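tool=predict chain=A
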Amino acid sequence: MTQRELARCQEGMRRATTYEEWYQAASEHDHLSGHDEWKKKKECEDYDYRLIAARTALLRKLRKQNKIQRLTFYLREEMHGNLGNMANPALYRVGHVGTKKLITDYLDEVVSTLEFLCKGNFKGVTNADKDNFFKRAAQSFGRSALVLSGGATLGLFHVGVIQELWLQGLLPRVMSGSSVGSIIAGVVGTHTDEELDNIFDPAYLDLEWSRMLKVQRILQGHGLLDQQVLERSINRNIAKVTFEEAYARTGRKLNISVSPADPHQFPRLLNYLTAPHVLVRRAATASSAIPGIFPPVGLTAKNFDGKTVRYMPQSTWIDGSVHNDVPKTHINRMHNVNHYIVSQANPHVVPFITDDEPDRGGGVVPFLKQLMISGPIVQVTHILEAAQRHLDVPGLQSVIKHAHAISTQTYSGDVTIYPQNQWRDYVRTLANPKPRLFQRLVMTGRRAVWPEIERIRNTTRISRAFDNCRRHLNQD
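tool=predict ok
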């Protein structure tokens, strides 16, 4: 191994235009650097390798012996997405691609066992029995969701993230969006799998959403930008369908978060369960109503006769990112999600995200760096809490409340995908995306996913196997 060979691999990763090209260069780098040897060794303090090895051997033995009752017993009682801490991010930060071979061997065995139970013919076991087992086991195991943050024009980064996950067969069926994320999620959530390839074409997505209002209208409180332009853009990209209709058509569990303009209302997560008849396009318009930039928005829905009417007519709503940029608690409660892939593009959040690389980042310097990043945020939060208690200035309380909500949120997930800081893009945050900028942001999103693909593939593999088995059983 020479430094020149490693540098060649790094250059190959940097110049790659597809995941396959990046994967080839990254895999070669892992081989030359000796990381492949680390992957082959079971022993590591970052996970319980003894437990994983024992569980793999037991499942393999029971499957070969055709002991169906014992298999279903162990799978129901002991299968866990983070068994033995095997989802520990540290296990994916040693090499560029993949993790311990023992972990992939365990996942191979679990998936093979599930497929064996799903497709095999066993005496006294009906398809209804199988479906009941898979339904309960899947409910216990949980599933993954993709959450798209705000970020205005910079949120086109999400399109690249979705495109790469889609190409790799890893796009979750549960999806949530706030602000611009709600627009992108709304487009994906109203299109079938057969239609999805179209949205990655810049000529398909019509995103001319920014035009400044005249000074007189700005002074009258209509916001800074013309909301009619934003609404027309959303309406061109999202059909006039309700959340329930979108779910029936696509099978995707679309969620859009909105924040209340009224201080006595609460944030809401709109989906086919909580607001089945609300129009998706109007929910996206409300979730994109950035305070000060666009005025609050009233929601609309289809009534029993199919006519469009106001929904909760006494209430108006603003940018979902203000209170629930990453609404994990609500999503988990309604969709049994316990694993979150977050695509984060908010310009006020991305600079403060730090990579979770414990094996490369120990010591005093990373501690001081983290302290410098988190210290000011903590101080701002305390100041806003004090302002809420002591300042009772008309009109100011609402601003303080929104600012406090923004400062106290959690903006990350189990896997957080975000662009590297590109300060030149910040001046385009509210600009109409030209084709060249659109393509660059999409490519940035795709590239940001590549180092996380194998981690996502592993952490979602069992839940995807459950989905595949249930679809197979329901087709019979």
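The CA atoms of residues 56 and 109 lie 6 Å apart. The longest strand covers residues 253-260.
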